[in-house]
Amino acid sequence: MLKTKLKQLTFLIACAALFNFSSVDSASAKVEGDTIIFGAAVSFTGKYSTNGKHTKNGYDLAVERINAKGGVTVAGKNYKLAVQYYDDESTPARAAALVERLIQQDGIKFLLGPYGSGLTKAIAPVTEKYGIPMVEGNGASRSLFNKGYKYLFAVLSTSEQYLAESISLAAEQAKKAGRDPSTVTVAIAVENDPFSQDIRAGVMDDAKKFGMKVVIDDKLPKELSDMTATLTKVKALKPDVLVVSGHSKGASLVIRQVNEMKVNVPMLAITHCEAADVIGKFGAGAENTLCATQWTETMSYHDDYFGTAMDYFNDFKAKYEYDPPYQAAESTASVQVYVDAIQRAGSFDTDKIRDALAATDLATFYGQIKFSEAGNNIAKPMVLRQVQNGKYVAVAPTKFATVPVVYPRPNF
Fold first, then answer.
1. Are 329 and 294 in contact (CB under 8 A)?
2. Which of the residues 48, 222, 365, 409 has an alpha carbon 20 to 30 A from that of 339?
3. What span, in angstroms and rounded, lies between the C-alpha atoms of 167 and 169?
4. Domains, the chain, with CATH or none
5. How do beta strands 367-370 and 361-364 pair?
6. What is the pTM for the complete model shown?
7. Cα separation of 182 and 213, whole Å?
8. Model confidence pLDDT, tens digit, residues 101-126
9. 152: helix, strand or coil
10. pLDDT 10s digits, 331-347
11. How many CA atoms lie within 13 A of 68 on its CB side?
């Protein structure tokens, strides 16, 4: 009799615990009370810490705004959002271990991405193994989208597109000057990581399309502290275009050393200008640099949470006291996509959410978001902005240009 009562009591306690943990399906998000808990391993320390900060700020602003507007409605009930963070220390192995911890120990079933393609590449097999959806905005490497992953979704344009537009722009400028685009020469210097190597591939493909000659094709040193060897070759060979990708550290390095060494190159196109704060750090030294961006506040995008792209820009700046780089904007958009999918699914079941994510076609302040079967966004273009008079202004593609490009860059 006593054993029977104990069994009944144990069963009731288990049921109560399950009900308190979540009132939804078994394969579902972690819900505590009326709050949905997302998980993210983000770089608060290490070489990606600057962009890790932007990523977290983007997530946090989205959570704050969505909560202020009533949160997420699922099956007639409103829920708030929260994010549980861990510091991945800019290390892929640690990022993968932390995501395993979030899923296995912390019970997190909805993941937001880290900063960077390398870290996303380390995490994706883990989320895939457990069938956990991950929406990310900072892993752009096209190598992420040829593995057959079903649970990975990226709101940003893939990395081979980042600086390819600079080659098209150089071809346009050559034609204006009465030159055949095939006479344009190109120099490339990129970090040896998945993101930057994809950028190289995109530039190489476009250069080949126009018949341009790549005269320098260098890998940046691991420590990203000296580009003297590459820039000495640039001075000697005088290419028309210099393309550089080395995340925030590489952006600062090339602008500093181009100025120190007085390297004259008609077009300098780089990544991570905003994240590296090249205008704040170098002032006039950053003038006429072309900067790849996933998003700019002058674009005519809008949504019901943030209003226009410019409204988002102003709201972010008011809260964090700096201009939002695209890394922050795409992180915010990642949360919006997740919320949209949850509400359309009307459930916290991870497979139902996965299917809703795959069917996304969403207008946001960041741009239109629609995923290919591989999980990358196929609805939003890249933009090139140029530093002119201490400000970033859109110069390409033509449909997004607000002013003409300054070409060639004035010599020292």
1. yes
2. 48
3. 5
4. 14-157+299-370 (3.40.50.2300), 161-293+383-400 (3.40.50.2300)
5. antiparallel
6. 0.79
7. 7
8. 999 999 999 999 999 999 999 999 99
9. strand
10. 999 999 999 999 999 99
11. 9
